[in-house]
Write a structure and sequence with these properties.
By secondary structure, the protein is of the alpha/beta class. It has 2 domains: about 10-95 and about 420-440, no CATH class; about 100-310 and about 385-420, no CATH class. The chain has helices spanning about 10-15, 20-25, 25-40, 45-70, 75-95, 125-160, 165, 195-205, 270-275, 335, 425-430, 435-440, and strands spanning about 100-110, 170-175, 215-225, 230-240, 250-255, 280-285, 290-295, 320-325, 325-330, 350-355, 375-380, 385-390, 400-405, 410-415, 415-420. Strands 1, 2, 3, 4, 5, 6, 7, 13, 14 and 15 form a 10-stranded mixed beta sheet that branches. The chain has a 5-stranded mixed beta sheet with strand order 8-9-10-11-12. Helix 3 (about 25-40) runs antiparallel to helix 4 (about 45-70) and helix 6 (about 125-160) runs parallel beside helix 8 (about 195-205).
Length: about 450
Amino acid sequence: MKFDNVPTWTEWQRRSSSSMTIRAMKPKLVRIDNLVKKYHQVLDMGKLNILMELKDAIVDWMADKIERDAATGRLEAMQALEEVVIRKLNALGNWGKHRYVTAVCIGYQIKTGQYDENKKPKDNEQRRKDETVDIGSRVRLLSAAIAAARTRYSNYVLVRNISSDEDRKTLKIFMAPEFFFRGPYGAYRDIGWASKILSMMRAETGKPAYADWLFVHGSALFSTQDEKKDGSMLENYALVQKGGPRTNDVQDVVVAKEFPSHIDFEHPTVSDRDWYKGKRPEARIAGEDVHALKPDGGRKDPLEPLSTGKPASELAGGCIFTMDGITFGLEVCRDHYLRRLASSQQRSRALIQLVPSAGMSIEAESVACVQGGIVFNVDGVTPHVDVKVNSNTAPAPVEVTPSTSAGAGMIVLYEPLNIPWPKAVAANVAQKLNLNRDVLSGTKPIPPPKPARLNV
């Protein structure tokens, strides 16, 4: 049996046999069924996340069968499904080709978010011009900071005498704080700027020298008016980008902040708690009061951490994304405080947890990456940079001194930290699934560094 693509739910149900009544009593099979159903409903990044989950879900299903010494009539279908999943992963996100053993966290320590809440444009055209100029200046500032970070890191590599082969095994993660792109009127009017900013930033980040870098360009705020509903969609997006020449559609990622704070869209008379009590909280945008509209299907803004109810999935349109076989969780500020990742179905799935913020530090109860995972926070209010390892035994991450100035901010660089890759798939599980163990684990052997040339 062979699948050319991930099967539709109808095809998968037919090829993997058994009635729905029987399937419902098999939780590991239900997990796989639900992922197959969801795969064809989402966009590329969601597909990549679901493929990563499917890969592990099939391995768990097979390991359970072996442990119980249970027979199955759907082994051939599972083998075919896992084969196409690995094939699609390789095509979408270079699964099995990743080379990163360590990660270096590089924070852009700069104060963000200031604007005059009473500033009002004379008309929409004036606002458009002012926001265009503002975004251009911020792109130039951030691009210069990234170039300064690359110089700082290159000097570090030179001083430590790190070979290029070894350096290619290190993922450099550069992050700016929340509100980096906010605008002179508190939020940009045109939400199309989210993709335009990523495109503009690629003039710097798309250079071959950044092939082993990941960027979080802080966040961008938008206020999109809906006249029919008498209010505005107030949205805050983290902008993520894999560096180097663009080769696929999953190198640019936008992660929405699900639970804004009152400081995201300030109003002079509204406190944080008051802002969430109302059905339509107020904000001051471009010198005028507007009502905030919640996106359709969005969860209610909680006043306390998310601790009750059914855990939500963050795989499709959520705070989980995958690049180079690495699963990341990204929480913008208050999402971290409310334990968005920690309360999700994907708790303890991310290898690296990112927190761009404006008034937030790493919260111990919100840490939700794997054991030994990396947690990286850059805050724009205090401002400060913080890095932790999710472990009681690992030493605290070490900041490389001195920091480097970049415009109005500083480049803060940390020593490399190990990326805690999951353990390899068991040999008997790989054999049953009819796939190579290394390919199935996504851990192709990394070639040893080339020997240094000796002058004789």
